[in-house]
Amino acid sequence: MPLLDLPLEELRTYRPDLAAPEDFDDFWAKTLAEARTAGESAAPAEYRTVAGSPLRTVDAYDVRFPGWGGQPVAAWLLLPRRATEPLPAVITYIGYSGGRGLHTENLLWSAAGYAHLIVDSRGQGHDTPDPDPVPSPQYVGGFMTRGIGDPRHHYYRRLMADCVRALDALRAHPAVDPERIVVQGASQGGGLALAVAGLAGDAVAAALVDVPFLSHMRRGAEMATRGPYPEIVHYLGVHHRTDPEQVFRTLGYFDGVHFAPRAAAPALFSVGLMDPSCPPSTVFAAYNRYAAERKDITVWEFGDHGGGRGSQPEEQLRWLDGAGLGAGDAAAG
């Protein structure tokens, strides 16, 4: 992937004038109120010990919590064994087309002393279906244009509501310190972490936002050479009479550039300057609008959509220590 976006010095000041939909805040206030009301009449969060787990230093739980519409969303909860409680916690949201996977696949955060909730993505992971309330034959493959005609029916309304409800559930867990919960993810997961930081206020202690998807989506559609943004291009190419402005207006309710000014939690972003899926200008568009007093971005000059790959977690752990959110000796109890 060649370097096709803006030079780094321009990216650092790239701040396009992008207006959120006029009812953006009202839309999300009603969405979350609706999701929480539905959750009150649904089964409460359930944590079942993973039988026969081969892990020796981590206690693993198979989780179901009420998400959008009170529908059960799957997750794993990993707790450092014999830890001193309450623990700081990390919630991980998953990249596009992925799910929570196996409970043995993602052990970094529990090894570092954090409670760790790994959230399945409805309709993408294997364990959380997506009962679409208004199925539409109009979308093209993938999730970007599901419900594109109306933000109330768009796929990402349901998924982002799930992500906030995961935070609600974890805050109530007795092993977790509700004042020290970090949201984290890469690609789609980074976009979801950014959305939760903008929606959940001081319930989020920090955000780790890696190579975020779902940000400055119109530019993503115009520039990205690899998915998922090309789904939008394909949709508009097939549905010639569809007004592009209407499409991007719907997507505006789920765009990180509109969540970023509403976020107050300290944040560490990362970006790859040779990213063909999430062009760096789309990342900087959100980062430069992010409203927290403390924010940093790790720039991987020759990074593609993998960003810093295995080097980024060490950056994150050190950054959390510096932000006063390290796990310290929690896992040594």
Mean pLDDT: 95
The residue ranges in which pLDDT falls below 50 over 5 or more consecutive positions are none
How many helix segments?
A: 11
Rounded to the nearest angstrom, the radius of gyration is 19 Å
The total domain count is 1
Strand pairing plus helix content: what structural class? alpha/beta
Strand content: 15-25%
* CATH architecture title: 3-Layer(aba) Sandwich
The CATH superfamily title: Alpha/Beta hydrolase fold, catalytic domain
Structure overview:
This protein has a single domain (28-323), classed as Rossmann fold (3-Layer(aba) Sandwich), CATH 3.40.50.1820. With 333 residues, it is α/β, with parallel strands linked by helices. The protein contains 11 helices and 9 strands. The longest helix is centred in the N-terminal third of the chain and has 17 residues, at 24-40. Helix 2 (24-40) packs across helix 4 (155-171).
Give descriptors for this structure.
globular, Rossmann fold, 9 strands, 333 residues, alpha/beta, 9-stranded mixed β-sheet, single chain
How would you briefly describe this protein structure?
With 333 residues, the protein is of the alpha/beta class. Helix content is 31%, strand content 19%. It contains 11 helices and 9 strands.
Mind sketching the topology for me?
Blueprint: H1 8-11, H2 24-40, E1 46-49, E2 58-66, E3 72-80, E4 87-93, H3 108-111, E5 115-119, H4 155-171, E6 176-186, H5 188-199, E7 206-210, H6 217-223, H7 230-238, H8 244-252, H9 256-259, E8 267-272, H10 280-287, E9 295-300, H11 312-322
Parallel strand pairs: 4-5, 4-6, 6-7, 7-8, 8-9
Antiparallel strand pairs: 1-2, 2-3, 3-5
Helix pairs in contact: 2-4, 4-5
